[in-house]
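in:
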């Protein structure tokens, strides 16, 4: 019987790797505690160590700035879509009213 593949959030992975880096428990103990293979935890640790300099990288600030700008633009576009939807609905309503007036005038 095969096991379902478990998806770990980045927060969970970080917590497990930090626990390993504290060296309060062995890799085997941590793997057993979280029911994760030792190889997978070792891979997470290697990935963490290779990417930890990114925390202090100024490029991350640029990424966050771009994300904020993207969110602002998204909010603006959602607002604009709402306005245009109201305009279209109003025009459809007026079109129906005008066509009814023309029918009565005949």
């Amino acid at each position: 019987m095969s096991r379902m593949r478990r998806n770990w959030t980045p927060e969970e992975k970080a917590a497990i790797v930090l626990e390993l880096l504290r060296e309060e428990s062995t890799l085997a103990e941590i793997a057993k505690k979280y029911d994760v293979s030792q190889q997978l935890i070792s891979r997470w640790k290697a990935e963490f160590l290779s990417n930890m300099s990114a925390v202090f990288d100024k490029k991350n600030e640029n990424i966050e700035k771009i994300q904020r700008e993207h969110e602002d633009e998204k909010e603006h576009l959602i607002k604009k879509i709402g306005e245009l939807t109201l305009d279209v609905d109003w025009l459809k309503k007026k079109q129906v009213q005008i066509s009814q007036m023309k029918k009565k005038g005949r």
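note: The mean pLDDT is 90.
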